[in-house]
Amino acid sequence: MNLSDYTLKFLEQKKVTKVFLITGGAISFMVDAFSRNNKVKYISVAHEQSAAMMADSYSRLGPNFSCTMVTSGPGATNLITGIACSYFDSIPSLHICGQVNTYEQQDGHKSTKNVRQVGFQETDIVKISKPITKYSYKLKNASEIRYVLEKAYYLATTGRPGPVLIDIPMDLQRVVVNPKKLKPYKPVIEKKSLNYKNIIIKIENLLKKSKKPVLILGGGIKCGKAELDLLKFLKILKIPIVTTWSGVDLVDYNNQYYIGNVGVYGSRAANFTVQNSDLIFCLGTRLDTRITGGVPKSFARDAKKIVVDVDRFELDKKRGLKIDLKVQSHIKKFIQNYLSYQKIIFERDAWLLKCNKWKAKYPVISKDFFKEKKYVNPYVLMDKLSKTLNKNDIIIADDGGHLTWTIQSFKIKFGQKLFSAFGNSPMGYSLPASIGASIVKGKKRIICIDGDGSIQINLQELHTIDKLKLPIKIFILNNGGYGIIKQFQELYLGKRYEASGKGVSNPDFKKISNAFNINYNLIKNHNELKKLVKIIDSKKAEIIEVRLKDNQKIIPKLQFGNPIEDLSPLLPRKEFYKNMDISLVRRNKRIFEAN
Ligand SMILES: Cc1ncc(C[n+]2csc(CCOP(=O)(O)OP(=O)(O)O)c2C)c(N)n1
Predict the structure, then answer these.
(1) Which end of the chain is more exposed for a tag (fewer CB within 10 A), N or C?
(2) How remote is the CA of residue 410 from the centroid of ligand 1, in Å?
(3) CA 539 from chain center: how many Å?
(4) What pTM was computed for the model?
(5) 483 alpha carbon to ligand 1 midpoint, in Å?
(6) Pairing state of beta strands 18-21 and 66-70?
(7) pLDDT tens digit sequence for 457-468
């Protein structure tokens, strides 16, 4: 067998059975190996960027992770945006790039070390990808292949997961290898183990002293595949729960402990909960600025903070937040240990009641939104979708206003999955991600929430959807431009809509649908939302263009300079002070003055 056959065999053994690819000269020998392997299948797509995004969503939802294969130079550089999605959201994926032959590489001889390129389409993808991968390596000779594949697999899936890249020169791809003689990779496993018993005693002591505790749940729980462990944990810790964007699908919206999404685009209820709390217990969240707001010191300023994270660097970063108890642990291990050492079932009824009153008083989907006559209000659309979709549906949003409306107002039924590429947040993610998701789930229907701007980035994959007959429902929320940018310009740039309204336009989405052989539907107003049930139940792919007001706003949203409890539109001050402990408001004033 040659090195390419060996690589596919390795993927087969690791149950990585789908590879998203575009072929090319430098990857040809690797791709040829598919002709001799009937277990690992490839899917030819239309852009390497979307191949990486397909692999990303495949890994988010599947039992195993996925792989891309691309040619050298432009094939490899096209992967970058998709790889970054996996890196920032801690998603394992493997990217195999073809590279020019070993004898024509720029770094192959000292006389060419400083030239730009030697081989045709030669690019140093290892250097380019280093900051967004856990491991990136160019194969030097064929005998390294087992070691490198095993190391890449180990690193992608262990600790905080993430993407890895292997660059394989063309001549090495066809070298005959003897698997028995290849050197294996033996990871150095750290023996250091935590004293969970002590940690859990400390946590219970903090809890006992707390009158207003809150659980903050983040995407790390999903990366650590601890969703079911979490359910058991929530039975013994009966306190208000808020989620980050990445954690939004961890808890049923109607769960009596669930208050809402916290942060810059969070709900008023969730933000009041966190900002009035005296203890926040954070699982799998890195508490980034989308959660804390621009001045981290003002976040949960009266609360002791417990944070559980697998990544030491996240725990030790200094950004104005003081963490009182840092627990560096894999989340699954932490929860399992908690369950075995825990002594008390913890409740705080009066506090829970107060938080639930906020949830009832400040719903994200306001009654007023239903009064819109001429267009569809996106919050009303989400209300309708929440009611229509079933508990196994997968919803993937892109980037912009439509992502924000979705995360703010979609009401999760436990079992549903709702995500985007949260950390990287590129326009163009949801369409290819929906393809990866549909494939890993056996051609399941996927709800893709897109914007009229974002969909144009990876529009070419509509053909992949048609070719593979995937029943993806593609919602294009059309507000005639880049809504989220317009709202920003309105607030901070004197309503000068440069390159967001001005100079930006859309193709005719009906003609686009026809060209790609996908059914087209138009929903212009609330009355027409009743068409949705039938469209969603269709066995085919459907494009659903939904007409919004051009100046549709994200409501509520944090304005620069405010702490997260004070979302805009600002509440009348009297009402606001009723919701906030006044000493906290005063303390906040001092924090902001000091900044
Ligand atoms: C690849 C990429 N380019 C640019 C941006 C900056 N950006 C973020 S959202 C956005 C506009 C999105 O417009 P649309 O998809 O129509 O969504 P809307 O806000 O109107 O709902 C832009 C330009 C980005 N996130 N990703």
Answers:
(1) C
(2) 20
(3) 27
(4) 0.97
(5) 8
(6) parallel
(7) 999 999 999 999
